[in-house]
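Entry 0007
Protein: Ribosomal RNA large subunit methyltransferase H
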Amino acid sequence: MLLHIVARGRIARSPEAELVDRYMKRIAWPTRITELPDTGGREPMAVAQGKRILLDEKGEMLGSMAFAERLGRWRDDGVREARFLLGAADGFDEPARAEADLLLSFGRATWPHLLARAMLAEQLFRATSILANHPYHREG
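Output (structure tokens):
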């Protein structure tokens, strides 16, 4: 299953970009990152049998194990792509939220987009490590 991050805004060269790159390289599953301008631009064509996950402060707060289980279930059900969308500064409107397969939140705090992207990359690495029974994750 392809793990695809579609993010508004350019990350350029920055400490956050280094974090994203570090975690994305460590993920054993296929990955892709698509950057869109803050406004406009076209999201890549939707994949049949794909899931659309919006990062949204109003979303579900999943622990790492629950997140891994969700990805594992999708993978096992034949989902070809899990597409994670990070919106612009104002987030997503109600129609976009309604179309999502999952609204995912990293808590009620407001996170800068570049940090949210790094946190997502780390959680994707952690989830795939959990699913591979790798000792990276330490359940407390």
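Curator remark: The chain has a mean pLDDT of 92. The two ends are 28 Å apart (CA to CA).
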